[in-house]
Amino acid sequence: MKHICICLLGILFTISASGQVEEEYVDNSQIVQVNSNALYGKVVDASSKGMQAVSVQLYAGRGKDSLIAAMFTRPNGDFRFANLPRRDSFTLVISAVGYLGKEQTVSFAGGFNEREEVLLKKDLGNVTLEPDVQTLTGVVVTAQRPALEMGIDRRVFNVDRSLTATGGTAVDVMKNIPSVTVDVDGNVTLRNSSPQVFVDGRPTILTLDQIPADNIERVELITNPSAKFDAASTGGIINVVLKRNKRVGFNGVASAGAGLPNILNGNLSLNARQGKFNFFASGSYNRSGGENKGRTQRQNKGAGGITDYFNQSSEN
Prior knowledge:
- This protein is mostly beta strands.
- The chain is 12% helix and 42% strand.
- It has helices spanning 2-34, 170-174; strands at 38-44, 55-60, 67-72, 78-82, 89-95, 102-107, 121-128, 148-150, 155-158, 180-182, 188-190, 196-199, 202-203, 216-222, 237-242, 249-259, 263-274, 277-288, 293-302, 305-315.
- The strands form six sheets. It has a six-stranded mixed sheet, with no helix packed on it. Strands 3-2-5-6 form a four-stranded antiparallel sheet, with no helix packed on it. The protein has a three-stranded mixed sheet with strand order 4-1-7, with no helix packed on it.
- β5 and β6 form a beta hairpin.
- The longest helix has 33 residues, at 2-34.
């Protein structure tokens, strides 16, 4: 009887052990079904900073035949695709505005096993996108200075904008400047006062007839000189700024003009520049013709009667 009890206990223990092994196998199969194949990575720029809202597309195989999944990257640049089908390779396409697109083929090492589910996970690491730099065609901006500019303490007249001064002298330039008056003898007045003539900001002994208009860049009118100028310049200052021509070698400018009645003018400027030395010479010729006739008749009276007569005739 004792042997029979021992045999029954052994049979029950064997059945219980086999039941536990079968339950563990069922649990393992359930774990395999919950997990899935995954592909993940991070999109960064040239400075290794994560890029947000980058389009990431995943295609089956080695081409763009069928789209499996698509998403935008997270704020830190991460992306993840889960529940991937059974394939040996995928095509990953990444694109962003202002960056060069990237296409990459992702292969799983070893592939998939047909008999048992093998979980495959692929980490692509950091995927760097390069900026899409495009060189535009060169743009040339052309601007023209106005003929008259208003400054803080002066008015500037640009001579190159005055076509009537070409071929003349500085006197011809002054005739086209507002508030400057030139009489028939070439005398210049600024607001009915005799101004002081400067050349490049310094007093000069040259007269305006000796300065060719082609060598003048601009004329500055200073009607209210400040304390830094000489006290003799209370009538105003006309500052003649010459052109800065630094061409090395020998060059010159010659001009001639004619008009009516019997008006002739000519200018010749020669310049030689070698190294730090600059030698120049200039000359001008001006002739103004025409006749000026005048006649004066006067009666001198005294005590109600004519005492004498004064008659005068002139011709210039």
